[in-house]
């Protein structure tokens, strides 16, 4: 019986061993299949959208498992602070990516390199203080870019070079004081630009950008607001309402600084002296009246220089004329006194000498030789 039951037992044993093994294999298969075409457990996925918003995520879920049909990836309202360079590889079908309301403070240069179909990127309300100039490389279809409510102090040259398709851009709510025109010139299709809530310094450094912005508006584009924080007399004013003449002195500054070098770096704000001079009465009315004064103040140096030149030349001419007049007067006086003396002597001699005319001729010749 033992011998008989042995194989039965072993057979039954083997069958009971094989079914958990099968389950195990199946389980592993399911586990492996899930990341291949599944939705990360923290996200809600539909056919074309993966919504992972507001889950308190501190790291990205396994995104490589997203269905390849995913067009929209929503990651807002999380606690993401760091993204690996490869975070969005294999997601080349994405058209919309929302990373707003996170704590991102630094984005690696190649982060979006494979998102050639991405048209809408939001980085709103993060902690970005700088953007790598190559950050947007590969984003050939971008139409909408939102980097508002960050801590950006500059828009690097080159960042927007490949963004000819961009139509909507927000830089509002950052720490921008100036922008370089050259950084924005590639945006030939821009329609909507938000620049509000930045500490703009309306000095020579903004002059070229102001020109570009006016061209954008002329083309039919929209710019929300660009209110000056500095200089004091322009505080609260939109730079578009500041007459372009107020920036004319910038050209003179550039000329004085040997062309160009001063234009980017050292432009002092318009009307520095005007602000230093009257720190007196209440502000609102004064700012309105000061602006034109200001223009005159900034123009003064050149006109003063010209005036001084005119005065000097006039002085020299006057001096020469005066000296000539004095010389002529002195000559006249000497001539007159000589003539008077001669006449007197003539009158003295007349009664003594009978024939006055005979003597007059040689005397007159003497005077003419003196002359
Ligand atoms: C991207 O997909 C390829 C194959 O399609 C795979 O080898 C690679 O590991 C994936 N990369 C990432 C970051 O998931
Ligand atoms: C990108 O968009 C084009 C046009 O809509 C489409 O033909 C292409 O398949 C898309 N690429 C990916 C990776 O989804
Ligand atoms: C910005 O994000 C923080 C945290 O992510 C959130 O508490 C805050 O309400 C957001 N602010 C705005 C204006 O969206």
TrEMBL record:
Subcellular location(s) per record: Cell membrane; Membrane
Signal peptide coordinates: 1-38
Presence of the UniProt keyword Repeat in the record: yes
Transmembrane segments: 307-340
Annotated keywords: Cell membrane, Disulfide bond, Ion channel, Ion transport, Leucine-rich repeat, Membrane, Repeat, Signal, Transmembrane, Transmembrane helix, Transport
InterPro entries referenced in this protein's UniProt entry, alphabetically: Cys-rich_flank_reg_C, Leu-rich_rpt, Leu-rich_rpt_typical-subtyp, LRR_dom_sf
GO CC list: plasma membrane
Any GO BP annotation: positive regulation of synapse assembly
Region Disordered, annotated ranges: 259-287
Entry-linked PANTHER family: SLIT AND NTRK-LIKE PROTEIN 4-RELATED, SLIT AND NTRK-LIKE PROTEIN 5
Protein name as it appears in the record: LRRCT domain-containing protein
